[in-house]
Structures are given as structure tokens and as C-alpha cells.
């Protein structure tokens, strides 16, 4: 009989008052099973932390930036396995059983396949390519709910605290430990940013930024380019 494992779900948030209850409610069965949920808020002025507090085990206030926030959550987490969950992403019902299988494996880290919430066929195509690319390259993005053994996370020093591409950069280092454990039952990610900015525009932006990152451009300049493109799309 295998030993039980402990899970810490770390949710970085910023101004999520309108959605934080919906984000945390599906995680309550995990808490009931003895696992923990940690919300890391970057000082949201809209009351996100207050809404989250009754629905998680701990609220941590940190500096702003997803990598900074995820590292802050990991620093206080008690679980053997750390799972980093975006506020607009929902775990499948099978998540705990799947993660228990991972805990018995020799892999150091892993991620879920992803599905997008939009009903247009283009979103199914986008998700298929995201999952296929991830399986071929061993690189995952934050939308895929990355998880990692605490010992591996600490040995690698956690996320590099950069304003963009922290998930890609960490994946590159994690690949030196093992190939990712891939869970086919997908997480569901809100497609609103794809819908707001346009699916094709968003695809081209992401690939362009990733290409510039692989060529050695700094995450700081890429973050500036990302913010500029998003502002232009909303005008």
C-alpha cells in the first residue's frame, strides 16, 4: 500500500474579486481530503483577499508578478506536491486521483492538457495545438496547471522572478530533471482573453513573443511588448 501524498494548490491572484469565489469553490473537496489551498494576492484593492480567506487555508500577500507570487506561496506550502493554478483555470474532477498516480512515479514534475471554455471550433483547434506542442517539446505554460515535487522545486530555486515567460523558463530547467508527467484529462481555462483580443491575433502574439524569447530577448522587453499589444487590441 502506497503512502498518502499531500498537495498544496497555489493560486496567484490580482484583482479577481469578481471570480475568486468561483475559482476556489471547486477546490473545497481537496481541502476536505486534507490538502491545502493557498491564495497569493499582490495587494488587490478590490477585496479579493477578503473574499478568498474563508475559502482557502491561507492568504499570502506578496509583491506583484506571477513568478513572485508563486514563489511566495511555495515558501509557506506544506505539501509534497505543489500545483500552480491560474485564477481562470479549473481542475478536472479526476485531478486528485491523477496527481496521486504522479506522486508514485519517478517524474519530478508535470502538467495537464488544457481545454478552452469558448464554444467556437477555433478554441478546440488552439487547445489541440497547445497540448501537442507541449507533448513534443516538454515545455508547458501556466494555463496547463504545472505541478512539481517540493524537493525538485526547492532544488531548482523555484521560478525565476521575471515579468513574462517564467513558466517556459522553469520548464526548460525542469526538463533536466525528467520529462513531464502529462495528464490527459484537461483543465478548463477561460477563453476570454482570446475572445477579447481575437483568437488569431492572440496566437500570433504568443508565438512572436516566444520566438523573440528563444532568440535571447529579455523578458522585460517582451512584457512591455505584450502590454502594448493588449492595449492596442482593446482600443
Automatic annotation (TrEMBL):
Q: Which residues form the Glycosyltransferase 2-like domain?
A: 8-104
Q: Which GO terms describe its cellular component?
A: plasma membrane
**Cellular localisation:** Cell membrane
The protein's matches in Gene3D superfamilies, at most eight in alphabetical order, are given as:
Spore Coat Polysaccharide Biosynthesis Protein SpsA, Chain A
Main subcellular location of this protein, as a coarse class = membrane
The record's section on SUPFAM superfamilies has: Nucleotide-diphospho-sugar transferases (SSF53448)
Gene Ontology molecular function: any one: glycosyltransferase activity
Keywords from the named record: Cell membrane, Glycosyltransferase, Membrane, Transferase
In terms of Pfam families, this protein maps to: Glycos_transf_2
Q: Which InterPro entries match?
A: Glyco_trans_2-like (IPR001173), Nucleotide-diphossugar_trans (IPR029044), Trfase_2_rSAM/seldom_assoc (IPR026461)
Designated name of the protein: Transferase 2, rSAM/selenodomain-associated
Amino acid at each position: 500500500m502506497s503512502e498518502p501524498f499531500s498537495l498544496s494548490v497555489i493560486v496567484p491572484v490580482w484583482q479577481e474579486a469578481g471570480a475568486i469565489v468561483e475559482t476556489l469553490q471547486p477546490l473545497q473537496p481537496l481541502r476536505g481530503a486534507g490538502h491545502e489551498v493557498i491564495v497569493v494576492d499582490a495587494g488587490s484593492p478590490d477585496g479579493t483577499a477578503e473574499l478568498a480567506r474563508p475559502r482557502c487555508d491561507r492568504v499570502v500577500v506578496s509583491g506583484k508578478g506571477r513568478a513572485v507570487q508563486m514563489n511566495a506561496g511555495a515558501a509557506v506550502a506544506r505539501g509534497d506536491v505543489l500545483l500552480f493554478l491560474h485564477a481562470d483555470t479549473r481542475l478536472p474532477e479526476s485531478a486528485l486521483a491523477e496527481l496521486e498516480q504522479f506522486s508514485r512515479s519517478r517524474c519530478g514534475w508535470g502538467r495537464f492538457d488544457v481545454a478552452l471554455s469558448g464554444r467556437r471550433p477555433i478554441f478546440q483547434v488552439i487547445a489541440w495545438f497547445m497540448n501537442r506542442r507541449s507533448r513534443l517539446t516538454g515545455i508547458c505554460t501556466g494555463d496547463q496547471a504545472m505541478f512539481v515535487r517540493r524537493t525538485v522545486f526547492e532544488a531548482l530555486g523555484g521560478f525565476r522572478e521575471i515579468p513574462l515567460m517564467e513558466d517556459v523558463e522553469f520548464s526548460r530547467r525542469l526538463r533536466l530533471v525528467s520529462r513531464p508527467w502529462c495528464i490527459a484529462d484537461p483543465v478548463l481555462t477561460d477563453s476570454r482573453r482570446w475572445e477579447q483580443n481575437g483568437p488569431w491575433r492572440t496566437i500570433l502574439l504568443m508565438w512572436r513573443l516566444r520566438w523573440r524569447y528563444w532568440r535571447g530577448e529579455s523578458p522585460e522587453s517582451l512584457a512591455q511588448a505584450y502590454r502594448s499589444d493588449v492595449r492596442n487590441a482593446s482600443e
